Amino acid sequence: MSAATNWPVLAQSHEALLTAVRGVAPGDWERPTPCSEWNAAQVLQHAAGDQLGYAAFLGEGTGPAEDPFAPSGKLGDEPAAVAEAAVRAAAAAWSRIPVDQAEVAVPLPPNKMTAALGANACALDAAVHAWDIAVATGQESPLTADLAAELLDAARQFVEPLRAFAFAPVVPAQPGDDAVEELLKYLGRRPDWTA
């Protein structure tokens, strides 16, 4: 499963999410995550819901069945199937969007971004939650330095107005942080987090 080739950042982020989900042992979905209020199943439900939300704003499907910001953790299907359906919907929606489109509808306020920024916002959501699920369940980080650097550049363009409700406070950077650590800290995560 890969996203449209005109959005490689989205394809990489979707693959990171799918890989993380497929790597979770059946008994590990209740494990705590860096999203302190949610277990791994709830993070997956949130991540899938966000992908479905982006898809719906772009005219693909009807969006998530539940509020992604209040996930019940009841997936309704096998975890891999939940992730695959959400990624497939988002990829299909973005495949119809030209890379130079000046404005697209997105679920983040103010509900409009350039296509490039919107695709990166959608990718950021998938990638960072792939990391959340991976580290919560004892897997290696799915984030590469190149992907993290691209997502950090985009995040700096839209995160601040949303920090109060969608992102935790910045974790102070340290000299020598790599791109992955910079991204995670900017999004309020501790790269050395453990359950």
Automatic annotation (TrEMBL):
Any coiled-coil regions, as ranges: none
GO terms of molecular function: metal ion binding
Domain Mycothiol-dependent maleylpyruvate isomerase metal-binding: 10-134
Stored Pfam families: MDMPI_N
Entries under InterPro entries matching the protein: CHP03086 (IPR017520), DinB/YfiT-like (IPR034660), Maleyloyr_isom (IPR017517), MDMPI_metal-binding (IPR024344)
Protein name: TIGR03086 family protein
Native source species: Streptomyces mesophilus
Taxonomic placement: Bacteria, Bacillati, Actinomycetota, Actinomycetes, Kitasatosporales
